[in-house]
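To: structure subgroup
Subject: Chain for Friday's discussion

All,

I'm putting the inputs and outputs inline so they're searchable in the archive.
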Amino acid sequence: MTVRAKLKPQVNNRREHILEIAAGFFVRKGFNGTSIRDIANAAGMLPGSLYYHFPSKEALLLAVFEEGVTRISEAVDTALADSRGDAWDRLQTACQAHLSALLEGSDFAHVIVRVIPQDAPGAAEELVALRNGYEEKFTALVEALPMLSDTDPSLLRLMLIGALNHVPLWYREGGETPSCLARLFIANLRFAQDCSETHKEET
């Protein structure tokens, strides 16, 4: 039985509060550095009471991760719905929405970057599925680009998402906006493609 199947649907206004607190702990202390007791104490409840909502720490992580994926996915979808540019413009729009969610959003989006599936073996398969489901948006956007025939779109996508997810580690408040960073990222990718094409034509 998967972790998702074990989750008990609860109609309780404390659930969102627990998720918010857990997201903060997972971002700042990591999954393995966070205990159920940490989260329960911060939520003002006994550890046993928390298990009433989530049968395990892995199940709690999965719920937090899923909420993070939902929020960042909806941000990208909303941005793309208003995009009328070419393929490069649409990719830039998605990158901007992704960065905005990471730099200006809640801890939920950061959990996707901070916690890797290998940290929670019991939920790894489902965490990977959630992450891959979101990244399919970028797969479609990258594959729509006018690229050179020898460009590996999968590698390009992984490089781009890796670079985007690394931004919170070096970003300083007051620096470039998500819009500016997205424009620079895509400009560099596009420049590399244009230079390679020019080089091929010259040779």
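Points worth raising on Friday:
The chain has one domain: 58-202.
The longest helix spans residues 57-81.

D.
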